[in-house]
Amino acid sequence: MSRPGQALLLVLGLTTGCSGGAAAPRPPGGPGIEGPPRPDARSLPPATAATGGVDPGVVDAAPAPVAAAVPAAVPAGCDLRGDYKLRFRSNGHDGWWYRVRLDGDPVRAEFLDEIFVLQDRPGPGQLEVAAAGCGFTVRSRSGLAGEVALTAQLDPGDGTFTGRLTRTRAHAADERDQVVRGVRERGASAAPACAPAGVYRLSIDPKARWRNVDPTDDRPCRGISRRMGPVLIRVEPLGPALVTTLARPEPPHAQAWSLDHTEARGPCAVALGLQDDATELAAEVTFADGAVRGTARVDHHVVEEDEHGEDLWHCLVDGATITGRLVAPARPPVR
Q1: Where do the domains of the chain lie?
Q2: Which of 48, 138, 229, 306 has the fewest Cβ atoms within 10 Å of its own Cβ atom?
Q3: What is the DSSP pairing of strand 108-111 with strand 146-155?
Q4: Is the N-terminal amide bond of 215 cis, ω within 30° of 0?
Q5: Measured distance CA(245)–CA(13) in Å, rounded
Q6: φ, ψ for residue 201 (rounded to 5)?
Q7: What one-character DSSP code corresponds to residue 255?
Q8: Could you say which DSSP state residue 4 is in?
Q9: Are 269 and 291 in contact (CB under 8 A)?
């Protein structure tokens, strides 16, 4: 469960170039908010310092087959350089990021960010370039995921790629071998000027008036905005969409766990719904020149523990103001 200073997990998506009128925030899972069913937060596995909320259970398997790829020079007419990004399924959640950069001469692979759920750290990956076509395989290894391989085929025309992400250890059998699709980013960032890519720090109005969801319960809801701690989100483009995942509070702000639902409201505005192990939020937010502002409905599960056990109650605020700003700009893509 969340504690003071622990970041709330926030994930939202923004389709660039769209337009639409504003609408009242919807609670997570309501009409217009797409995504998997939301479990009751009390049914989620408890987060621990060791796993960051990720269930450490794994399923062992023999190494999954990977499409043939051999070390070779990049075929003529194919330039593989760029930042490759996709989202994949792990531990029952579809929104985990996989990012790898291909650059240099000869081209090399480098993981720029920690892939927390795979326990892959920033650093070099083993790159194999297909003998023909614009294909490649990037391999890595970790104690949690075993042997990990992304085998992909790039479409140089539109910068998209398709392939498979395989791992020999997984939380569930169907996560060991996945069809994946992603984009290669090259040159200037595809993020709109109103929402530069990077990490944003958000806060809920400390003067917002919270109330206990149960009118017969007199346990207090004062100061919940402060108790929730910082809200850090990473904003970045994924093809035509601007996707924002709430990050862990400590640098380098790796992705943390959450369920997310989003809906575009305009070129720089979205309706969003999210849930982590302690909080459900529905909001309308707008980005402008590296800042973000909106209103939200938030249901926060307050937990207190003493010698008698665990005490739980819900505090709710409706129409609270959310504001934020860019605090860590993203590194520019490969030129």
Answers
A1: 11-39+190-329, 62-175
A2: 306
A3: unpaired
A4: no
A5: 9
A6: -105, 120
A7: B
A8: T
A9: no
Strand partners, 109: 102, 125
Task: For residue range 242-296, list pLDDT tens digits in order.
Answer: 787 878 888 888 887 777 777 778 889 888 777 788 888 888 999 999 999 999 9
Give the residue, 207 or 305, on which the prediction is more confident: 207
Contact between 204 and 298 under an 8 Å Cβ cutoff? The reply is yes
Q: How many CA atoms lie within 13 A of 101 on its CB side?
A: 17
Question: Which fold does the domain 11-39+190-329 belong to in CATH?
Answer: Lipocalin (2.40.128)
DSSP letter for 332, please: P
Q: What is the number of other CB atoms lying within 10 angstroms of the CB of residue 32? A: 10
Q: For residues 242 and 235, is the Cβ–Cβ distance under 8 A?
A: yes
What is the reported pLDDT for 309? 60
Three-class secondary structure of residue 134 per DSSP: coil
Q: Report which secondary-structure segment, H or E, holds 109.
A: strand 108-111
| 142: number of Cβ within 10 Å | 16
Return the number of other C-beta atoms located less than 10 Å from residue 94's C-beta.
13
Per-residue pLDDT of 179-231, as tens digits, reads: 999 999 998 888 888 989 999 998 899 999 999 999 898 888 988 888 887 77
Q: Which H, E and C letters describe 225-242, residue by residue? A: HHHCCCEEEEEEEECCEE
Instruction: Give yes or no for a contact between 99 and 84, defined as CB atoms under 8 angstroms apart.
Output: yes
d(CA 110, CA 243): 22
